[in-house]
Amino acid sequence: MNTEEKTIDQKYIYKGAIINLRLDNALLPNGNTAKREVVEHPGGVGVLPIDNNGEVLLVKQFRYPYMEETLEIPAGKRDKKGDSDPLTCGKRELKEETGAAAENYYTLGTLYPSPGYTNEVIYMYAATGLSFGEADPDDDEFINLVRLPLNEAVKMVLDGMIPDSKTQAALLKADILIKQGKIPLTIRKKDI
User: 18, 125, 152, 172: most buried, per Cβ within 10 A?
Assistant: First the structure.
């Protein structure tokens, strides 16, 4: 069965710094029409930093739409044109939010956070071989860093304590890829 919908026309309701809101008329496969509300977003990138102790570095920050603090992988949006290289953007966000740089980056794929109404695509990476400098968050970012063993972070996802979708996906995918040997880690024993 054909499920493709075709755009008849588009009208912008709002154009903002982060999102645009469009109201489209779409032609359905059965010949009927429907209204489609679309949130345009330039997309984002998230990076899961994993240190040589097998710990992940997450950021805790207040998220206004939910009026609560969330625990997330370091992440940020791509430019409005959507033409910035995702990995370059991820490296920038990792440095800004955590002060970290990485020797190795492994793709964790892409995520469509809510395909029913937005065209946002989030690119995800795992990063290893970390070195640390000074963080430089944006003026409107207030971030606390949280370091956890990967297995503890995965348990938090499974227990519903990390609701952010990109963080859930990155943690679960990285955990599987590490166990499969596709993301090599050299875990050093902690000094006692």
Answer: 125
